[in-house]
Design brief:
Structural class: mainly alpha
Shape: globular
Strand content: under 5%
Number of strands: 0
Largest sheet: none
Distance between the termini: 47 Å
Amino acid sequence: MSKLEVNKKKKKDALFHTAFELFTTKGLTKTTISDIADQAGVAKGTFYLYFKDKYDIRNKLVSHKTGELFFHAHEALSQTELTGFQEQVHFIVDHILTELEQNRTLLTFISKNLSWGIFKGAFEEKMPDEDYHFYQSYLDMLSQNKTSYRNPELLLFTIIELVGSSCYSCILYQQPISMEEYRPYLHNAITAIMKTFEEQS
């Protein structure tokens, strides 16, 4: 990475960091682009080099934060000896749930703003090593599996929707039960979803 690219990445990271802090403390409505640029220590014009408006940075921030969650889970998975697709999916889900339990601000921000369209942006989000793409990693996991699945994107969507909607209430409000109590049911449901998508031989 050239010096110019490093400098650009630092500015973008500073804008992301500041926007996240302001959106989660002041809220999206009360946060202005000037607030973000000033607190990030960049000129307002610099903001527009990376983002169209505050809704654009909000959407890209959701993709970025979601991508980071999957990147951390992927890194942790690479330290294990798990090879089966189902076991890997369960591990990734558990890792992400634990991270969200420890960072409820992040959970609230992502859950409030996450849509499938925005989430798909996380598929292409370049993570710290610049080589990791979550969706490609997911497809690689599938390709190494003995079982074939119909419509891999729909399978992923179904699992993510289930995990996202259920963990929000269980983690933040302990409703209808705590996340700890709910986890076995969640994992059983994920196994059943994967079974539904299996290609019949």
